[in-house]
Design goal:
Radius of gyration of chain A: 20 Å
Oligomer: heterodimer
CATH superfamily of chain A: P-loop containing nucleotide triphosphate hydrolases
CATH class of chain A: Alpha Beta
CATH topology of chain B: Transcription Regulator spoIIAA
Largest interface: A-B, 21 and 18 residues
Number of helices of chain B: 4
Shape of chain A: globular
CATH class of chain B: Alpha Beta
Order of helices and strands of chain B: EEHEHEHEH
Largest sheet of chain A: 6 strands, mixed
Helix content of chain B: 25-40%
CATH topology of chain A: Rossmann fold
Strand content of chain A: 15-25%
Number of domains of chain B: 1
Shape of chain B: globular
Radius of gyration of chain B: 13 Å
CATH architecture of chain A: 3-Layer(aba) Sandwich
Strand content of chain B: 25-35%
CATH architecture of chain B: 2-Layer Sandwich
Number of helices of chain A: 10
């Protein structure tokens, strides 16, 4: 479905992708795991065409996203849904208009058909009845679910989730996890999830990919990752502060750094 | 997508749809169905045996058809649906709302009383 090949990207001196190659299989849930600054969100954004890498390719249905013109990208994005980290709802629009937005933007459907689609999507995320509420009146978990309803309103082939459970309580996280799995299993939606929530990742993933400062350090099934002997993988999944993954970004000596500056 | 319409003298309409019913094509399905929801039409049979894929807009269009049919008290039957399309109805809990039939011709003949 999506194949990343030899991807390289840097922001200044920070490497977000160092010769990264990986495959996101059709109709599977793949979770991109990694700490802050590991490059996972940048990779996700580049997969939907929000920013281009320095080099390498991202093949989506046989087309290289990194080389598409704006118009082609716009067309291709109709096959993609994105749940943003902060859900990115329009605060001035009610829930109905938020979910209707992609339909009005991309289709010529009648208002009555749009109304029915919105009811179907809200039922899928368990929120039918909130149509007239404003985003500010919703809890964090409800906001994510509305964001998800909007992400799937055009029946995308792939849904990208950027930190879908961040900032949610355990029950709300569990609800979002279940929705991701249900949409994947029932609708056959290919799901790509960026997360640093280990528990959630192991619950939902068919495949896990772990990034560490722009390097792909492990990929495999949850079972394979759990049994990985790699110290970096072990440190990440156990959340240990001590190990080969440093807390700071630079290797430069701290005392030397502040004295020389 | 291709739509053909057959109407008999007893006010029964057979609408045959072939291809994919998606966000781009469902407005055409809606336009094809719309003229037949009136009191002199006793039934509409939608033959979906040639439909391989239907998205949410297709489902929403069928729901609208059902609403129109109930207003004019005519039968609205979805016939010959493939399993993959039926799955979408099941998923959205709409499989108990519609009248389904395995065979459009048999249903068409049943309503016309042939």
């Amino acid at each position: 479905m999506i194949r990343v090949e030899s991807l390289n990207n840097k922001f200044g001196h920070i490497t977000t992708a160092n010769d990264v190659s990986c495959h996101f299989e059709e109709k599977k849930v793949t979770v991109l795991l990694g700490g802050s600054g590991s490059g996972k969100s940048t990779l996700l954004k580049q997969m939907v065409g929000l920013g281009r890498p320095d080099s390498g390719s991202i093949m989506f249905d046989g087309r290289d996203i990194t080389k598409l013109a704006r118009k082609e990208l716009y067309e291709l994005r109709k096959k993609m849904g994105m749940l943003f980290q902060g859900s990115a709802l329009f605060n001035s629009l009610n829930i109905y208009e938020n979910i209707a937005f992609p339909l009005r933007e991309h289709t010529n459907l009648s208002d009555s058909v749009i109304k029915t689609i919105i009811k179907i999507k809200l039922e899928m995320v368990g929120l039918r009845g909130v149509e007239n509420m404003m985003p500010s009146q919703l809890s964090g978990g409800m906001t994510k679910r509305v964001g998800l309803a909007r992400a799937i309103v055009l029946d995308p082939k792939v849904v990208f989730y950027d930190e879908p459970t961040s900032g949610l309580d355990p029950i709300a996280s569990g609800v979002i996890d279940k929705l991701i799995v249900d949409l994947n299993k029932k609708l056959g939606v290919t799901s790509i999830v960026v997360s640093h929530d280990i528990d959630s990742a192991f619950r939902i993933a068919d495949k896990l990919i772990i990034l560490f400062y722009g390097n792909l350090i492990a990929e495999g099934t949850p079972e394979e990752i759990k049994n990985s002997p790699d110290p970096k993988v072990r440190q990440f999944i156990t959340g240990s502060p001590d190990g080969p993954i440093p807390f700071t970004l630079t290797d430069k000596d701290f005392i030397e750094d502040i004295l020389i500056d | 997508m291709k739509i053909t319409v057959e109407r008999d003298d007893k006010g029964v309409v057979l609408v045959k749809i072939e291809g994919e019913v998606d966000m781009h094509t469902s407005p055409d399905v809606r336009n094809a169905l719309l003229p037949y929801f009136k009191p002199d039409i006793s039934g509409i049979v939608v033959d979906l045996s040639g439909v391989k894929y239907m998205d949410s807009s297709g489902i929403a269009t069928m729901i609208e058809g059902l609403q129109w049919a109930s207003k004019v008290k005519s039968r609205f039957v979805l016939a010959g649906m493939k399993e993959a399309v039926m799955d979408v109805f099941v998923l959205t809990n709409l499989n108990n709302v519609f009248e389904f039939s395995p065979d459009s011709e048999a249903t068409f003949n049943d309503i016309t009383g042939r």
